[in-house]
Design brief:
132 residues; mainly alpha; 2 domains; rod-shaped
């Protein structure tokens, strides 16, 4: 059989057409995969937005709480200043020594002029540990 130019061109055209079809199929698969990835990224982005909104609301609530705590405990600084002004440092040092030796908070209150809360705190922090 003799191949003439028309036969050759027909075979080449069919081969090119087949290559084009295969190429189109691979391109369609790639487009589908890209769409799937894009949808996944969009879904992740929506979840991230929700999380960010949650973090922002938690942050705002935390800010309000910190502000409230600062307002409630602003007098603590004044109280510390008063304690420092009365020259209580030696009294606390001596009270700590007595607590380490086993003195009760009542004795610390009487002997060093500490408030009941201060004496209890010194006793708890520095007093002898009671065995069970």
């Amino acid at each position: 059989m003799i191949m003439n130019i028309n036969t050759f061109l027909g075979i080449a055209g069919a081969a090119l057409g087949s290559c084009g079809m295969v190429s189109a199929l691979f391109t369609m698969r790639a487009v589908r995969a890209s769409r799937t990835r894009c949808e996944s990224v969009e879904s992740g982005l929506a979840a991230l937005r929700r999380e960010l909104e949650l973090v922002a609301s938690i942050s705002a609530e935390t800010g309000r709480r910190v502000k409230r705590i600062e307002q409630e405990y602003s007098c603590v600084s004044d109280r510390v200043d008063q304690v420092e002004l009365r020259g209580a440092a030696p009294s606390f040092d001596q009270a700590i020594d007595y607590a380490r030796r086993g003195a009760e908070s009542g004795k610390l209150t009487q002997q060093f002029g500490l408030s009941r809360g201060e004496a209890d705190l010194v006793t708890r922090l520095h007093g002898r540990k009671k065995s069970a």
